[in-house]
Amino acid sequence: MITATLSTLQSLPLSSPSHSSSSYSLRHSHGRPFESFENGFRRSSQTHRFDYVDYQETPYRVIERYREMVLIYNNGAFSNLAFAPVLKACSKASALNPGKQIHAQAIKSGLSSDVFVQTSLLAMYSSCGEMETVFNLFDKIPHRNVVTWTAMMDACLRSEQPSRAAVVFCEMQRAGVRPDNFSIVSLLSACARLGALNLGRWVHSFIEKEGLELTVFIGTALVDMYCKCGSIDDALMVFNSMKKKNVQSWNVMLHGLSVHGRGEEALQLFFEMEMDIGIRPNEVTFVGILCGCSHSGLVEEGRFYFDLMWSKYGIEPTVKHYGCMVDLLGRAGLLEEAFKMVMEMPIPPNPVIWGSLLSACRAQNNLGMAERVNQRIIEIHRDSVQGDTSHYVIMSNMYAEAGLNNKMAEARIKIGKKPKGRSWIEIGCDVHEFTVGDVSHSMWLKIKVMLNEIMKKREDHGEEDLQNPHSEKVAVAFGLLSTSSPMPIRIVKNLRICEDCHGVMKLISEVYEREIVLRDCTRFHRFMGGLCSCKDYW
DNA sequence: GTAGGGTTAG
Q1: Using one digit for the tens of pLDDT, what is the confidence trace for A136-178?
Q2: Which window residues (466-485, chain A) lie with Cβ within 7 Å of strand B?
Q3: The sheet that has A491-492: what strands, in order across it?
Q4: CA geometry: angle at A61 spanning A59 and A67, to 5°?
């Protein structure tokens, strides 16, 4: 410890702090200069100019330089200007321990009540996953500004609590704090994750009403929201009206078309994207393209673009690109080729890839290969404490169909207790959160009958129909089309859901032979297609 | 002057 301190001190310039500042500035004079924070550090009553942050540096280097400053001025006082940038660096690096030390120093300096320091601390704890601390901290911030509120929304989104983020937004409005571009983007992100189309539309009209500019960030967030909420045409409308687009805007639209089974249009969009000078497709772009090929059964096109990403753009395929390809080949019935691809890929395959191949084996009814694949999944999961058991569900069903009852029973035991999935539905202007997997429902028998009926209707529609989004139809069914103002959200806890919905959540797990954790209810909306009786129930 | 934002395989 002492050695480290000495060596750090020795490595520092012996000249005055102001001199060290200029030497660093000179060194970087060709790039973005160091941010200058006068009063960042003070010794006695004397103020020194101190530059310690260069945003081009790695977060760890920023933290290191901050520590060097602390060593020099260990008897001095800090101003809030010293803390915010280094806490931002801690956020970027998810560096909890340095963050805690800085928190302690902030308290010692009597600056823990400064809103800049508090907001930076909030963001730091949030990016380190310390949600309890975040909520405690937030409660103790007396004068929250729009940045504080947005940081809190971001914390909710990070911890997979999008409905809470929406509530935070509402509280912010109630507190009389005007939302800005940042908070609107966070709210749109919450809508996207919730599948809350109606709320998203409210946000869109809010943007227009308030005359907020359709910046590239807001535009992209809107497009993403409409895609995730199943309203692809609205997404296209916003996308086409965007004056400025960057690679993320294109990627969002491309991926949206892909997951909606509109692969041909996705490929057309990619063509247009290539025509746009100044836009260079990146690896996310190709995840979107390959996903589109897979969802639309475009095998040859998928192969073509998988090669193109390296040959034309020099992008190395990642595990996600391989995942799309394996899914594409598997769905097309090319099991051997898919298996070969997994075995020969230069990066280690993960359970997602094997799982996708296993689903393909199930679809092709290839028990032999399914067993081989299952073995691989077991090997990968061997070391993990909380293993995903969905592969056993597929195996047990395949064994059941093959009449191998002993093996089926064996697999059933392994399935064990599944964690509860959560989902949300938007009814009117409320966002409702509920959980799935409750087997104790007193109406279960009745539900079962109802589900059979729903499944029959699904079959009558044909499998193809199920691939298409039914958002508009569902919106009507759920009574979503009425808009009310000014406060669009109210979260209902301990929600009762209608028998149909409750049962369908279970059924999805059974039918798709996988554990369903619905992050948004888009898929759920599509699945229901207006067939449930939630509207009457409510 | 310092703090907060959008995309990614099943």
Answers
A1: 999 999 999 999 999 999 999 999 899 899 999 999 999 999 9
A2: none
A3: A421-427, A430-436, A491-492
A4: 110
The alpha carbon dihedral of A298, A302, A253, A250 has a sign of: negative
User: Residue ranges of the domains in chain A?
Assistant: 1-143, 423-537
Rounding to the nearest 10 degrees, give the CA dihedral for residues A243, A248, A249, A250.
110
Please tell me which residue, A471 or A103, carries the higher pLDDT value: A103
Distance CA A80, CA A520 (A): 39
Cis status of the peptide bond prior to A486, with omega within 30 of 0: yes
Residue nearest to nucleotide B8 (CA to C1'): A284
Q: Pick the closest to residue A531 from A473, A459, A468 (CA basis).
A: A473
Q: How far is the CA of A186 from the C1' of B9 (A)?
A: 25
* Closest to A63 measured CA to CA, from A42, A87, A39: A87
8 A C-beta contact, residue A460 and residue A495: no
| From A96-105, A115-124, A518-527, the region with the lowest mean pLDDT | A518-527
Residues 169-188 of A with CB under 7 A from strand B: 180-186
Q: pLDDT for A308-359, tens place per residue?
A: 999 999 999 999 999 999 999 999 999 999 999 999 999 999 999 999 999 9
Q: Taking residues A262-285, what's their average pLDDT?
A: 96
Phi, psi of A380 (to 5 degrees): -65, -40
